[in-house]
């Protein structure tokens, strides 16, 4: 039995060989996440899918997809996976543990009306832009860029949750989170690197101005806002923001994907705003030819593991955490899942 102040009762009866569960860290729609000790004593965030996730084909595929891709990607600003099993009763994903949690928690801890210090915000945004530059270089689209999927450690950030990520050459189910979702996704079109840039643009606006650019209390209201409205200029909300950065953040929110800057342009501008000469990112590792992973097999970090997902479908599905149901069965955009 595992106890923690926040989650006094451990709900999963399952154990994963090689890991000792220490306490529950959080609960997502797909899985429970525990602080666990590996055999070498290292602490990890151990993701164990809910029984229900394993029973539902689509949810199980989403978890398997997250395991395979997180193991495959190697980048300082993408949450590092130590080990994992994509499918079967022993499915799990052992991730680097972030004791300081995700960015949402940091934003929620701020006093009302306060923003993150500007340099801290620029640094986090530059790290996320760097992670996206890498993913887009590989031909992958993350599809769920938002503060809840950004983990923070000592002022540096790493992008996590590869459950919705896919390689554009292979296709994948289109999804997103309504506050961060690009107009083309609301239109039911396929997502691209430019859709991730739009989501990063929302985060830039939110972190640097202290307010989200679009508001709404339902999916429909948010859809109208993203499709038809233009946000107030960032300079109006925070006159100290670097002009070039506020201009680029607004460009990242262009309704047409082709008009948005690339993740790399954002990365470079953010580094320049931090006073750091932007270097080219050099990647020494890219995914190799897809191979099918046998269900239930544990995949080591050094084996390239592909994603096998269905072709794009429409209409788009809101990301799982944004369609979380309340007790009356309606889904709430605002409900925290923890
Ligand atoms: N690497 C980590 N380090 C620390 N805490 C983590 C880590 N990964 C996840 N958590 C905690 O566990 C919670 C649930 O994780 P997450 O949201 O990834 O679960 P999920 O079931 O995969 O999500 P989804 O609802 O998108 O399917 C997070 O909100 C966070 O509090």
From TrEMBL:
Residues 307-318 have a biased composition (Pro residues). ATP binds at residue 47. Residues 275-338 are annotated as: Disordered. CDD domains: STKc_PknB_like. GO terms for molecular function: protein serine/threonine kinase activity. Residues 19-274 form the Protein kinase domain. The keyword Protease does not apply. Keywords: ATP-binding, Kinase, Nucleotide-binding, Serine/threonine-protein kinase, Transferase. It comes from the Bacteria. InterPro entries: Aur-like, Kinase-like_dom_sf, Prot_kinase_dom, Protein_kinase_ATP_BS. This is Serine/threonine protein kinase. Transmembrane segments: none annotated. Pfam families: Pkinase. It comes from Deinococcus malanensis.
């Amino acid at each position: 039995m595992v106890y923690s102040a926040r989650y006094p009762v451990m709900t999963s009866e399952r154990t994963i060989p090689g890991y000792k569960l220490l306490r529950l860290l959080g609960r997502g729609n797909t899985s429970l996440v525990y602080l666990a000790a590996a055999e070498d004593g290292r602490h990890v965030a151990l993701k164990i899918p809910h029984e229900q996730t394993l029973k539902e084909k689509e949810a199980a595929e989403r978890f398997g997809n997250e395991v395979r891709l997180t193991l495959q990607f190697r980048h300082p600003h993408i949450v590092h996976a130590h080990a994992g099993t994509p499918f079967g009763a022993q499915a799990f994903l052992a991730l680097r543990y972030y004791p300081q949690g995700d960015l949402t928690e940091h934003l929620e801890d701020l006093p009302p009306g306060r923003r993150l210090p500007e340099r801290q915000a620029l640094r986090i945004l530059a790290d996320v832009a760097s992670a996206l530059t890498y993913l887009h270089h590989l031909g992958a689209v993350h599809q769920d860029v938002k503060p809840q999927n950004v983990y923070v450690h000592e002022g540096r950030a790493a992008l996590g949750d590869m459950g919705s990520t896919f390689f554009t050459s292979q296709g994948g189910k289109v999804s997103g989170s309504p506050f961060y979702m690009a107009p083309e996704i609301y239109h039911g079109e396929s997502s691209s690197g430019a859709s991730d840039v739009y989501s990063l643009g929302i985060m830039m606006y939110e972190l640097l101005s202290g307010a989200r650019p679009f508001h709404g209390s339902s999916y429909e209201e948010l859809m109208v806002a993203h499709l038809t409205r233009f946000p107030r200029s960032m300079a109006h909300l925070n006159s100290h923001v670097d002009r070039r950065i506020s201009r680029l953040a607004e460009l990242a929110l262009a309704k047409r994907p082709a008009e948005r800057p690339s993740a790399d342009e954002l990365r470079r501008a953010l580094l320049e705003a931090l006073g750091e000469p932007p270097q080219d990112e050099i990647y020494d590792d890219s995914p190799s030819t897809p191979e099918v992973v046998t269900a239930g097999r544990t995949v080591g970090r050094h084996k390239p593991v592909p994603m096998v997902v269905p072709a794009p479908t429409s209409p788009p599905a809101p990301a799982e955490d944004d369609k979380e149901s309340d007790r009356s069965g309606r889904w709430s955009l605002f409900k925290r899942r923890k």
